[in-house]
Specification:
This protein is an all-alpha fold. It has 9 helices and 2 strands; from the N terminus they run βαααααααααβ. It has a two-stranded antiparallel sheet with strand order 1-2. Helix 5 packs parallel to helix 7 (160-177), helix 6 (109-138) packs antiparallel against helix 9 (211-235) and helix 7 packs antiparallel against helix 8. The longest helix has 30 residues, at 26-55. The protein is globular, with a radius of gyration of 25 Å. It starts with a strand and ends with a strand.
Length: 257
């Protein structure tokens, strides 16, 4: 059988195998290598920092002492009130609202949004649980209570506010990346990064954490986010918008035998 308007023997585009359409996108496979490297590097740096803290029994290093003393000596209004307000956003309901928003942005359709929200919240909750376990394991004492000008509880390493805010910022950045234009997404990423960095710095400024605790929180959050992105194609797959050549309508005229 031939189709009028086509050369005899001409064939259309070869259809993609069904297995290829079901597999993870090529871009995701290409990104797996850098994400693994990032997760490994951050995990190694975190481990080195945790070992250093443990070997010293929590005693701060000289740069940590210097940063703490500088923060205590340079407190004043309105910076102190701003620091307290900013640090309050790094825990509690705000990070979870950010995770929910990320899922709503990332998903497509009601089932897709629900799945994305659950995955985003799960990443945040898992990160907090891992952070808490590490805090209990390392059991680093906080700076002297007399230097505190903010609320704190538990041990010091790694910083909970820092870890949680960095995780929430990364999760929301992921949701924005799946919905917004690249230029808009980059602007939002910069704002989220500044917020997460600001929350971490307030923990040192308020005297409740050593700088190493904050650095450890950033490293831990980055490693966990990289691992979460590796699972993204399977947990929250992107819709395949490429047309299926086998379902494309014929371009020629009426067929005849």
């Amino acid at each position: 059988m031939t189709v009028s308007g086509e050369e005899p023997g001409a064939t259309g585009p070869e259809p993609r195998p069904a297995a290829d359409r079901r597999s993870a996108p090529a871009g995701s496979r290409r990104a797996a290598g850098p994400l693994l490297v990032l997760a490994a590097v951050c995990a190694a740096l975190f481990a080195a920092l945790a070992i250093t803290v443990s070997v010293r029994h929590g005693v701060p290093l000289a740069p940590e002492r210097a940063a703490h003393h500088w923060s205590v000596a340079h407190r004043g209004e309105p910076l102190l009130s701003l620091a307290r307000a900013l640090t309050a956003t790094g825990t509690g309901v705000v990070p979870y609202l950010m995770a929910v928003l990320a899922g709503l942005l990332a998903g497509r359709g009601a089932p897709g949004r629900l799945r994305a929200v659950l995955c985003a919240v799960a990443v945040l909750a898992t990160g907090q649980a891992i952070r808490y376990g590490l805090m209990v394991l390392v059991a680093r004492p906080r700076p002297p209570v007399a230097d505190w000008v903010g609320h704190a509880s538990g041990c010091s390493f790694p910083s909970g506010h820092t870890t949680t805010s960095a995780l929430a910022a990364g999760i929301l950045a992921w949701g924005i990346a799946r919905r917004a234009r690249p230029a808009v997404a980059r602007t939002c990423w910069a704002v989220l990064a500044l917020w997460a960095v600001g929350v971490g710095l307030t923990r040192v400024y308020l005297g409740v954490h050593w700088p190493g605790d904050v650095l450890a929180g950033w490293l831990l959050a980055t490693a966990l986010l990289a691992l979460a992105l590796l699972l993204e194609p399977y947990a929250v797959p992107r819709p395949d918008l490429r047309p299926d050549p086998r379902r494309a309508p014929p371009t020629g005229g009426h067929s005849h035998e």
